[in-house]
Amino acid sequence: MSLWGEFDFCPKCDHNNLWLNYFYIHAKNSPLINLRSTKRIGPHDINILYFIFGSLLGDSYAEKHGNGTRICFQQEGSHSAYLLWMHTYVSHLGYCNESSPKLTTRLGFQGKLRTILRFKTFTYASFNWIRECFYANESGINKKILPSCIEEYLSPLALAVWIMNDGGKVSSGLKLATNNFSEQEVLTLINILYTKYNLKSSIQHDENSASNINKQYIIYISKYSMSDLSHIVKPHLHPSMKYKLNGYL
Predict the structure, then answer these.
(1) Please, which residues have CB within 8 angstroms of residue 117's CB and are 6 or more apart in sequence?
(2) Strand 61-65 vs strand 44-45: parallel, antiparallel, or unpaired?
(3) Local structure of residue 120 (DSSP, 8 states)
(4) Cα separation of 45 and 22, whole Å?
(5) Is residue 72 a contact partner of residue 118, using CB atoms and an 8 Å limit?
(6) How far apart are CA 195 and CA 110, in angstroms?
(7) What does the pLDDT look like over 153-179, one tens digit per residue?
(8) What is the reported pLDDT for 27?
(9) d(CA 235, CA 238)
């Protein structure tokens, strides 16, 4: 298989007629970090798009940088093995620096010291459409929203990454922390999980949300769908995250 695998074309890029550009031809032989973001254009490996969409459904975020966009990944130090695996996956596709992320510390809630691992992709003008899909500007603040094209990119790999980022075992099933999304957006995700993968899930009010005024919602995947879910995502799960399948291996 070639470095770039199966290609996908950026739906908002003006350069789709350039099937391969300098960046792709010389991906492993050029100082990528010095290449201007406007030169880093499509097509992209379809797996990196699945990986990004699954990550952005969770805690990762898309950041405007100059004329382009870069994707930012981070995890608590307790999940360092998973974050390093993510970095290896992204760097092997040529989308970020190969240097391993380093642990950093910062003050968290009530002054608790937290250890964080993070890394960012290179900046791409052809990632701008992803940022535009995932964010809406409300009163000067970028609010994460559910992309209208999410069904297309919610592959088994994307679903696995989403679970590793924001999933958690609960009772006999699994929950997905969809707190950033509206009730209607969460219902849309539930419908996609059913129509695309025949996974039975329900919407629940997050009891830990601040108030009943600004309700937050989570997805609960039924125990009756956990065996099917395991079959779908297990090939893509990092070993340190298999516990989230709640024993359905």
Answers:
(1) 74, 75, 76, 77, 79, 80, 83, 84, 101, 102, 103, 104
(2) unpaired
(3) E
(4) 15
(5) yes
(6) 43
(7) 999 999 999 999 999 999 889 999 999
(8) 44
(9) 9
Residue 221: strand pairing partners: 174, 201
Give the dihedral sign, CA 24/162/245/238. positive
Strands (E), the chain: 7-8, 44-45, 61-65, 68-76, 104-107, 113-120, 135-138, 141-144, 167-170, 173-176, 201-205, 217-221
Tokens of 126: 């052809």
How far apart are the C-alpha atoms of 117 and 85, rounded to whole Å?
12
Give CA–CA dist 65/170, Å, rounded: 38
Residues 189, 181 contacting (CB under 8 angstroms): yes
Q: What does the alpha-carbon distance between residue 45 and residue 5 come to, in Å, rounded to a whole number?
A: 6
Name the percent of the chain in helix, strand, coil, to the closest 5: 40, 25, 35
Question: How far is C-alpha 194 from the chain's CA centre?
Answer: 20
**In this structure, how many other beta carbons lie within 10 angstroms of the beta carbon of residue 246?**
20
Dmax (CA) of the chain: 55
Q: How far is CA 9 from the centre of its chain?
A: 19
In which residue are the tokens 């975020």 written?
61
Element spanning 231, H or E: helix 226-233
Upstream peptide bond of 11 is cis (omega within 30 degrees of 0): no
Q: How many other CB atoms sit within 10 Å of the CB of residue 123?
A: 22
Give pTM, 2 decimals: 0.82
Q: What is the pLDDT of residues 176-212, one digit of tens each?
A: 999 999 999 999 999 999 999 999 999 998 876 655 5
Side-chain-facing half-sphere of 52: CA atoms under 13 Å:
29
